[in-house]
Hints:
Shape: elongated
CATH topology of the largest domain: Rossmann fold
Strand content: 5-15%
Mean pLDDT: 82
Amino acid sequence: xxxxxxxxxxxxxxxxxxxxxxxxxxxxxxxxxxxxxxxxxxxxxxxxxxxxxxxxxxxxxxxxxxxxxxxxxxxxxxxxxxxxxxxxxxxxxxxxxxxxxxxxxxxxxxxxxxxxxxxxxxxxxxxxxxxxxxxxxxxxxxxxxxxxxxxxxxxxxxxxxxxxxxxxxxxxxxxxxxxxxxxxxxxxxxxxxxxxxxxxxxxxxxxxxxxxxxxxxxxxxxxxxxxxxxxxxxxxxxxxxxxxxxxxxxxxxxxxxxxxxxxxxxxxxxxxxxxxxxxxxxxxxxxxxxxxxxxxxxxxxxxxxxxxxxxxxxxxxxxxxxxxxxxxxxxxxxxxxxxxxxxxxxxxxxxxxxxxxxxxxxxxxxxxxxxxxxxxxxxxxxxxxxxxxxxxxxxxxxxxxxxxxxxxxxxxxxxxxxxxxxxxxxxxxxxxxxxxxxxxxxxxxxxxxxxxxxxxxxxxxxxxxxxxxxxxxxxxxxxxxxxxxxxxxxxxxxxxxxxxxxxxxxxx
Length: 508
């Protein structure tokens, strides 16, 4: 009897499990169906850029607006009239009244006459653009290759569902002309790179005599393009401010403005700074960055999983074929904070309003002193290899620049001695004793050029006292690295040298 009861209980339990599974499957199927229907309805409700319907022509380089409504038509006609001068200036001054009393008449006039270029019109760039337009800037060039997507709407300043699928530059003009119709927009639907820099950052030529940009805003999240933009601005004397990584950040109180050479706790800033230093740019570029530290439970930048790449067609997930597809967690409020800080800096600079930012560290003289030390040690090492001859060192040059020194000290070795971790009185010195001559000769007689065979990866960061001992015992003496240093120090140096080697390829 007990066996029958037990069998019945098992059968009943099995039936319950199967029924639950069937019910769960039905619920999940229904939810997926409902989700699919909602998504389809949403997509249908969004204007299709391919629809061939009557359009309102944009004022500059981007094509017609897809499916404009009556409000769009009204706003564009008003903007055309305002930009042609048919708009009461008293109304403009009334709209800008709060800025006027803050900045004064002279400051507001400077702002109204300003020409600003914004490169990157996503979360950061869109908020910067909206703030500058509302503050009175009359000429804005927008540069971006991307379109508004559904995922853009959590952080874009002005985009709506109706803007999904159109270029971001066009979206900004479409929405802001309804707020400040007198603002003239120059739209450039293209990706910034060094080859196009001269054209993209050229003077404003829409009716006015060529006016150079009063400021350039870097809101790019691609490192290579960012470095090319900042290098071009630095070399051509264009005022620029760069927004660093807002992704994965959550604390608005940690956002600040500082020099590119002093920013910290920011991955994008660190990578940008390293490459700029290798190009000879060590300071002089203001950046907006966050000092927030990452920690357990906080969002982190993740690459797309290899499993997803194995499925193929991952290029569909990125804006361009050569862009690495990433999963970038972004809290929608943080790009806005970055964008407004950027715009605030530009407004203060253009109008001449007093600024009290924390000054950058004056380390250029330190880099020059370290470079002189490297030169002196290389001459001693060469004389030692050449039997004490002094003539071999006459006119000797080392293929190292102050930018290289800055990169090695600050980035590769994090501003500390590799031997003890001490951050003061730092020097760079060759790590291994050469097994052959370091002299490189090119030409003859008065046209001869002498240089030392020296790479970034050959140098190590130490305090001056440690470098003196290293020179005496290793470079000019007979001791091996293993006799002087612990395995931990040797391992650390080798790791830092690999980092230097990896970045060395970015040198011009």
